[in-house]
């Protein structure tokens, strides 16, 4: 793969550009295709679904857990305990982490779309707390023992708390700023606009919170990586906001499958819910009928800035290029927020459950990483051995749209202890990685 041909770098705010772009003529939304099976479903008013569904292989999202029925017929020594089911990230060996291809126990990929038109059979009935929602089982680390003061996640059947302790107010942030600036008080940047404005004027300022040495790189046509795009202050805001939303209705949960498999991550959707089992977007969650929280306006404006910046990168000195053909703009109405423990991962998959119109236009996915770094794989096929590997660090933004909208991608592993220490200090984010992917349905 001649990625070098596509590389473009832009270090901001110095705006030093190195263009080696030879691909710009071949965009214009070509090569786009809708979902593979094009199945559509008509959903009841109760769920108010968007009428589009496609079948991604469920296997990409599942981990290698046997169905519960299979587990009960296993020898005791091989059975997974209740703890296993709740915390595979902590309990399972990492030997197979490198293999994120098709799981050894291939799950059924057939989706019963008839069922998708119904409310879940459990609707209206009291559910027993599932192991995956028992906070005890998430307590991986020594610190977690002390997390009982956490504002959520301390009682059964409450959402997963991505932070270990009560979130702190702005005082530690300010004290850190004071420390780093020799006692000079720096106002915490609040809004996205203020933040941008601030970033434009911090050249030479090595303040740990807001100094960014942004580096943009075009990985492929329509696929860009913006290194360290998000300043620390904004990363803190993102964690705090996700934490608060994640503790409320429609917050973080650990998606599972009918066969007993569980994803190796915690998920929360904003705007619309995406169900990893049915691959369907809906206004309510299937498992608990909760309505996903709205996307905070700060998040939406961040996505707008990211796309504007990406367009600047793509355009470079070539005024004649229509950047919309290379990377169309979009207004996100969906955000899938994933939290990966340090042994979390996500198999290679395509994001192609959005509307046919969105996919045909190549409306981009904007992916934001906060916390521990991840080894991220991407490629043309669902083949780990042929995939490119890039490390996504805290504050990085990855965009894939246009010709790259259907790229296979996944998270091979989380690299422990790589989150910026001040971020952890200020947010008490658990060990692991927060990822937000914005899309327009
Ligand atoms: O965590 C990531 O970087 C990728 C997440 C992703 O691919 C998804 O949520 O569809
Ligand atoms: Fe994805």
Automatic annotation (TrEMBL):
The organism is: Handroanthus impetiginosus
Enzyme class, top EC level, equals oxidoreductase
Question: In its UniProt record, which GO terms are filed under biological process?
Answer: methylation; oxidative RNA demethylation
Entries under Gene3D superfamilies matching the protein:
Alpha-ketoglutarate-dependent dioxygenase AlkB-like
Which GO cellular component terms, listed alphabetically, does the Swiss-Prot or TrEMBL entry include? cytoplasm
Q: What is its EC number?
A: 1.14.11.33
Name of the protein described by the UniProt record = DNA oxidative demethylase
Family indicated by similarity = Belongs to the alkB family.
Cofactor dependence is on: Fe(2+)
């Amino acid at each position: 793969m001649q990625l070098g041909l596509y590389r473009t770098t832009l270090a901001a705010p110095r705006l030093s550009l190195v263009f080696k772009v030879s691909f710009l003529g071949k965009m214009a939304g070509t090569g786009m295709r809708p979902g593979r099976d094009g199945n559509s479903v008509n959903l009841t008013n109760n769920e108010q679904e968007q009428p589009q569904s496609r079948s991604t292989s469920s296997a990409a999202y599942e981990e290698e857990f046997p169905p519960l029925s299979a587990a009960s017929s296993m020898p005791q020594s091989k059975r997974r305990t209740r703890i296993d089911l709740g915390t595979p990230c902590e309990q399972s060996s990492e030997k197979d982490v490198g293999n994120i291809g098709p799981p050894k126990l291939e799950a059924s990929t057939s989706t019963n779309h008839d069922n998708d038109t119904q409310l879940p059979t459990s609707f209206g009935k009291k559910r027993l707390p599932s192991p995956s929602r028992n906070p005890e089982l998430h307590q991986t680390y020594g610190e977690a023992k002390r997390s009982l003061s956490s504002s959520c996640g301390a009682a059964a059947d409450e959402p997963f708390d991505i932070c270990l302790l009560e979130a702190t107010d702005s005082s530690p942030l300010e004290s850190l700023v004071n420390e780093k600036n020799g006692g000079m008080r720096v106002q915490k940047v609040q809004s996205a606009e203020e933040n941008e404005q601030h970033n434009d004027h911090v050249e030479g300022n090595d303040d740990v919170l807001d100094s960014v040495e942004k580096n943009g790189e075009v990985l492929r046509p329509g696929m860009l990586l913006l290194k360290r795009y998000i300043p620390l202050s904004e990363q803190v805001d993102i964690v705090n906001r996700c934490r608060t939303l994640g503790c409320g209705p429609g917050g973080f949960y650990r998606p599972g499958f009918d066969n007993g498999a569980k994803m190796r991550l915690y998920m929360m959707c904003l705007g619309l819910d995406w169900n990893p089992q049915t691959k369907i977007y809906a206004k309510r969650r299937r498992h608990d009928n909760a309505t996903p929280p709205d996307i905070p306006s700060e998040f939406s404006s961040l996505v707008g800035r990211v796309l504007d910046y990406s367009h600047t990168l793509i355009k470079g000195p070539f005024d004649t290029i229509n950047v919309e053909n290379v990377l169309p703009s979009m207004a996100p109405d969906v955000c899938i927020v994933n939290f990966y423990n340090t042994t979390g991962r996500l198999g290679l998959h395509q994001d192609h459950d959005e509307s046919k119109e969105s996919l045909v236009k190549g409306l981009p996915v904007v992916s934001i990483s906060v916390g521990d770094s991840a080894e991220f794989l991407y490629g043309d096929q669902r083949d780990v051995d042929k995939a490119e590997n890039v490390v996504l660090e805290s504050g990085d933004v990855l965009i894939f749209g246009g010709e790259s909208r259907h790229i296979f991608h996944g998270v091979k592993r989380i690299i422990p202890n790589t989150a910026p220490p001040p971020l952890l200090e200020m947010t008490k984010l658990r060990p692991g990685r927060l990822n937000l992917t914005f899309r327009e349905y």
